[in-house]
Fold each of these.
Amino acid sequence: MNDVLPLDFLTTMTLLPIVGAAVVFIIPRGRERLARWTALIISLVVMVMAIGVFYDVQANPPGAGEWAFEAQAEWFPQINASWHVGVDGLSATMILLTGLLVPLAILISFEIKDRVQTHMALFLFLETGLLGVFVALDMMIFFVFWEIGLVPMYFLIYLWGGENRRYAANKFFLYTMAGSLGLLLATQLVGLTVESFDIPVMLDMWPRYLMRGGEILGVDVSIVKYYALLGFTIAFLIKIPAWPFHTWLPDAHTEAPTAGSMLLAGVLLKLGAYGFLRLAIPLFPKEWIIERQLFSLSYNLVDILGFLAMAGIVLGALGAWGQNDFKRLVAYSSVNHMGFVVLGLAVAALMYGTVWAEANNQYGLLAGVAGVDGYQDMTSTQLTDAVELVYPAELRESDRQDARVALNGAVLQMFNHGLSSAGMFLLAGAIYHKAHTRDLRRFGGLWPLVPVYGAALIFVSMASLGLPGLNGFVGEFLVVSGSFKAYPVYVLLSMAGLLVTGIYILKGIQKLLHGPLNEEWAEYHRTQHSLEIERREVIALAPLMALMLITGLYPNWVLGVINDSVMRFLGG
Amino acid sequence: MDVNWFSADYLPWLIMLFPLLGFLVIVLGTNRSVIVSQAVALAGIGIAWLLSMLLFVKTVWVTDKTLGHDVFGSQLDWLKLGTQTFRVGVLVDPLTAYMLLMVPLVCLLIFVYSLGYMRGDRYNARFFAYLSLFSGAMLTLVVADNLLLLFIGWEVMGFCSYSLIGFWFHKKSAMEAGVKAFMTTRVADVLMLVGIGYLFVEARTLNFRDILYSEEMLKMLVEKDAILFGGSVAALVSVLLIIGTIGKSAQFPLHTWLPDAMEGPTPVSAMIHAAAMVSAGVYMIVRMFPLLSAGADFHHFDYNTPMLLMGIIGSVTALGAAVLALGQSDIKRILAYSTISQLGYMVAALGIGAWVAAAFHLINHAFFKALLFMASGSVIHAMEHGEHNAHERGHGHDHHEEPDGLIMDYCAPPNDVQRMGGLIHRIPVTAITMAVGGLSLAGFPLITAGFWSKDEIIAEAWHGMSEHPFPLFVLLLLLVTAGLTAFYTARMWFLAFWGKPRTPAAQYAGFGSLRKGWVVWWNQRRWSDGYKLVQEPITRRDKLSANQMEAPLAVLAFFAITAGFIGIHADLIGKNPLHDFLGGTLLEHPEAIPFNFAPMLVSMILAVGGLTLGWWVYGRRPLAAGQTDPTEAALGPGIWAMLQNRFYIDILYRRYLLRPAEWFAENIVIQAIDKETIDGVLETIAETFTWLGEAFKRFNTVVIDGTIDGLCAALYRFAGWFRQTQTGRVQQYLLLATLGLLAIGTLFLIQVR
């Protein structure tokens, strides 16, 4: 362990933006152009590094228990926290996404004329926060970066947002802080109990800690673990955002500046899902799947997660349908799309639990999952026999393969949603920036005025809708396919949501582009401000569109890396 | 890897690639030039057609019995999923080859036709780009070797039809029709997606060969219980796939989008109704038939749920749509219902196990329906022209309001057969080719393609009717449909082309055809002012457009006759090449049922009878201007209105499904749940904290501040007293300081503990 902070690759990549932020911040007033380009170039350098990380992980996937680019240094020995970073396929994918989206967002925020230095600095600051979460292998570092990401976004909304920005910024901040509070407490609890904040150590020790019962701080361990799980989960559910923790999102998105929305939807929402996969699921394999009683009704937490996913898909879609504000519509679509991620997570959690139970000889758990009657009173031999009868190994393996499919889909959906929601917000912002309204009822018939914008909008909308051949479809298909056997009813109900996805996407296209030529806007377009998409916006959008098409036609370029990490997670 | 792209294994990739490439080139590059874009699109589909022909020849070259088992194809890794790798590829077996005979050819003809039809349209380049994508997607679907790639083509076509139906996006009705088509088919598609997904996790593959040609796999799927609804896995998957077809091929109850799909330009209708889209739905169930029929022994009249579903849905749709076609005045809408009806035939055919007949009818129908639609397009073109001419000759422009959105019983004047009449003298090429198409649709005996394929379906149903009530049911419905089809086809043709023109527009209708010497001569003898029209200068461009529209009709008319001759029953001419060739696709070569003269006679009688009745009513004494349509008179106003309003199904959906859902989204989801409940709870929490803060503030002012104020006063008095201690002696100060420190220290210690 080194004594000083090592400048390894990941640390450099993570801290480069914040150094850049400092540089951009002190660029004097009047040199806005310089500030913009400096920020862009720094983010491009980070992008190249992120691509490097991704391809290196693709070429040399880390084996079980290993981490690519791993580095560790002394940081806060008093509380057993260290500067520990490293990546696997999952974080490499998310880093790639972050690295790609930040330069595009910065390019879009070239349109900001007010306090440019601060604005650009905040974006770079935000990038450090995001990358930090994805590289962290230490819980304290994870938490610090988790919170760091919050601050710049708050200011971006608060200072450069729309009319209702104060309400939105405060709501965003309080909502997320409320989640963070639980996260902090749960983190401390776990970290102090296992006497380490190192994530691999925690993942190894905490699930097995007092596995057969006992007390922590005088409270029964199952209750402690239950509340710790809630602490993690609620924080992550808010961030995703899963239904019913989603109401901060429409406000924050609607009021945020375009580039802010792009990153908010594109990357920030992924933090929640990432947290699930890195922490909330592997820390609590047992707690997710153990059978619980509520008024003689037995349930487990995974099923509730599945239900929330379905509710998010259906109600998110319906919510989007009912909007007349274009950005609000797109914001609700995030709830809808991230619902599929949550559905995949639920199946993954279920199967992760069974893998863990099997490895730790917890046949009672397996019996609960398999639905063996009266398993509580069985001896361990009886349990093993009953499980092998009802839920034999080949069936477990088959279900695990389904869960791998679903989890591949969920992670791919995270990546895809990052691309398409960023694209949608870019386009929603592009028209808002020029027309100064987002009210869909006032538009219509714009396509003859904005042929390029129209074509781009249709393309990105179709990607968002999940049109096969574009990226969104592959993820959705895999999630639907992999979760159908675990949650057939939820999946069928979710299909209603997928149907409504079509309605709201078409509503957006129709209300903007179709219909008789809108004289009001034609006049505006001629005399005041062209509504057509600008060259800079096209440059920012083109890479996204290219990736949507490439991922749709040949998903294996990213899925290979994702699958490696899925196999780490649900292998065996 | 050494790849010979022109070997039959790799050719399918190229076949689907070229039209898609055409789309990309137009969108990204040439969209500013109409001519270049058209050339690119034409080149794309032209090359695809040539390659398809090459491939077709290669497949026929292989002795026909072996291709079913050793298919052509190649694959690549597409997805890595856990421990397995999902591969995507192409496949050429006899069924694919048969489809490749039709799809690229009809697409190519539609492209050529569009050159003329879309002349002068502002968005020509965009139109050809969409058409290229459309045909590329259909070709992808046809050559796919697995359900997922098929589904990709399937959905891209859905997008294309949405865009093309709503191509004239400034018209509200077109825009609504596009959305309606997309959403109605999507209802089915999301369920089909579940079916595919479920099949994938049960079978661990979606490859056609691995699923459909493996008895073990089919057995496993039939024997395993499904996760929902009780039946077997195979049954659940089959039903979900059939729902996909119900949407795509516009079967009841999801048929409502197709009649409105004619809002798009007519070549699009031809594309949707013939070459692609609706054909894709039937193609998919033809392709998946071994799975759909798994577990059923239909040769011995033992049917399973999916087959019963297909049979009932298909035959009910066939009959219902035929009845609706009777009550339409819009020429394209009559054809649209006839498509629904004919697709019903194919679906019903699969229901009773008539696999070869279904595929046979699919191809034949595509030829004659493409012909009929394009001919109707030229009729409409001629009528629009006629309206323009009539207006110029002072006949008054009867002004009609564009409807605000989709109106069920609205009929655009140029499409209205009641306003036509006598058009055979104005556009004879169209009239004659349309007659050929119509005869094929009606199943005119022996010489038309439609007869042979329809007859085969009816014969199969006839074969089982005495054994099982199900084929009897299908047979009865299909027979009634056959009679109705012949009648409404005759009605349409005679109303449009026969008799005297009923409106000035019809009188002056026409386009380039009038240049032809024999037409001039004919017209001279009939109507003098028709002759005068010819004196108009017709530009070379006009002539070209007319040729571009008429040449495809002639080609299709040829196929509408001859495409049936390859599938005549072996007992009649000694060999049934189609049956031999196509049958090799299935694992077990389907046995042809013995030839029976009775059903053939019945279907002949019905076809000829229906046509004769049509001639009796509409041909013998053509409808005069202002006269009520005899069908309308015979049916009475109530039934007529019901037919015009399409059995009120659309209204029902709108009123009882769409509106409530929209209301639910706006009022319950957004308002009641999100705003009032969730945000309400949060705001209550926030308000509680605010209130608590207020309370603390109050506590501050009253208690603490009060205390402090009191303390201050006390302090003041104390200070007065304390001043006396200011003695100036250092010792006393030190003592006080020490005491103070001690006090603070004690306090601090207590605190820390």
Note: The mean pLDDT of chain A is 89.
Amino acid sequence: MAGGMERRLWDLLLILTAAPHSGDVVTSALRLSQAVLDKGGSVRVWACGYATMMTQDTFGDTKLPNTRDPEGHYPSPSAIVRRMIADGRGRFAWIACTACTEERGATHHIPQVRHRSPLRLATTVVGARQTLYLGGA
Amino acid sequence: MTTTARTGPGPSVLCVLDRAYRGAVEAQFFHALYGLLDLHGQFERMDVALRGAAVTMAVEEDIYRPSVRLGTMVLDTLPDYRGSVRDLVAEGFEVLVDRDAVTALGFAPERLVTGTTCLAPAELAGRWPRYDQVWFV
Amino acid sequence: MDARTAPPEGTASYFLIESKGNWAGPDAGAFLLDGVALAEAGHRVRVFLIEDGVFSAVGTGTPEVERLAAAGAEILVDDFSAAQRALDGTTLSPHVRLVGMDAAAAALTEEDCRGVWH
């Protein structure tokens, strides 16, 4: 590997291209992330395709009202990701692919999300010990 | 739960659900069955047919807890599919369940949520003419 | 670290995550057969069935699961996905074992493990 500066290696990179609401892939990705965090590891999620919708600040903190449980509290996807980033204390990060962000018109990410060009995908992969590609975009 | 009066202008509709488990963390209460519960009052009649893997939504069990821990957040608002099927029945929906899928997955039809109707696939199709429209949701 | 460091004797360790399974369509079992081929070639293969992939563990005669077991692969089933789908009320293959997500995390953070998600 080139470069004199020590690069940080993340334990797991999840390239999440499958869309929310298409299946339980987002739930699985977050559960796996949490399991790696629980054993002291570090996780990065690279969100592509409609997975870029997960972190839109237009969600606010909560989902829309549940008409069958108006008093219930239902955190929004972006609130969940924001909380995981905060709780991870540097061990959990979320990257939004800038091309997919533009392509889907999902341009209003919460500030905790890093924006990266797809030209940096390979660099990001090299920065992880393990990469899983969760396809579906 | 009381049966909601259906006085809406919409036609009678049979909703067929053959793709289950389309998002837990991001969907929470806002899943396909909730949509039917929330909207059915607008229709003269609305019923549901569960096919394929979606039949498992109508199988009673007592192990699954609709909860996941993500960071310091315990998200205990994941979809409760069986509870929604019970709500459908309570609100006057006819809930039809494909017997072939139930038996192929090894379930005894007696384990289905009380009030649902287990039918052979051809019998399910035989119900279609009773409705103005059939929607695969 | 070179992630492609060859494990002993030229074999690799695979952790194959199947999220679709044999109820997702006619070719859905092909990924499990990839696991069979890898195991028969001498690689270590662990299969983790998750989401709708857990349906492949139902019953005692799923051909892909039988072949994986015969080839020496370990077949794990995500307990959350199985419970979500009420699979405690049915019979699972004797070749599979219910595990938590921590098992997947442990495997995927092993030094030489190659993870693949389908």
Note: The two ends of chain B are 24 Å apart (CA to CA).
